[in-house]
Write the structure tokens for this entry.
Amino acid sequence: MSKRFTLNGFWLSGPTYKVGLMLSLCGEDFAYVSLNLRAGEHKTPAFLAKNRFGQVPVLEDHKTGLTLCQSAAILEHLAAELGKFKGDGIGDLARAREWMFWDFDRLAGPVYRSRAQRFGIRNFTQAIMEMYWAEGSMALKVLDEALATSDWLAGSQPTIGDIDVYGVVAYAPQAGFDLKAYPAIGAWMKRMEALPGFIARDDLPKASRP
Ligand SMILES: N[C@@H](CCC(=O)N[C@@H](CS)C(=O)NCC(=O)O)C(=O)O
């Protein structure tokens, strides 16, 4: 049977992982199109027709006919369509959205860019790397403090807020941040990793699959 969702992504991409993790936690098997970013496959006219921003991930929802980009927007769509990880009522969902916006504002930049530097993909100056170190450490401290008093980021159960933020924190060690300094984050990661359907960062498919 053909699958409802096709995820277009790249296996080293954190935002792609967020969507793959959400689909897997929702028990949704999905088709996968692997793009070679180094070869510029995300800038071809065919791909730009799917995402005007020329980025992965892109999710095609064959039931609604929607083709969506921006991982946080995709998570919201999946939560609404599948009725999962949206919390209990509009308050939880609003709180989850706060964390998703905060994530890309404060955490994702320092973590993903420091990681790209360590992988030799970017070439930032020492001063910029120090700035990312300070910003990332500050954001991780904020997250650790929030998780010291609550098992989940929004309400009493895991939501798309947790999935979104986990999809950045999972890369923090590769970016050079020592998560041992943040015990509440460590405990929350274990709770995330115990959820049925959890897949690890490196479990994203490395090649296309139908
Ligand atoms: N805010 C976007 C970020 C997406 C993003 O930065 N994707 C990267 C891969 S991790 C990409 O496609 N980079 C290529 C480019 O921007 O040209 C999201 O959450 O989906």
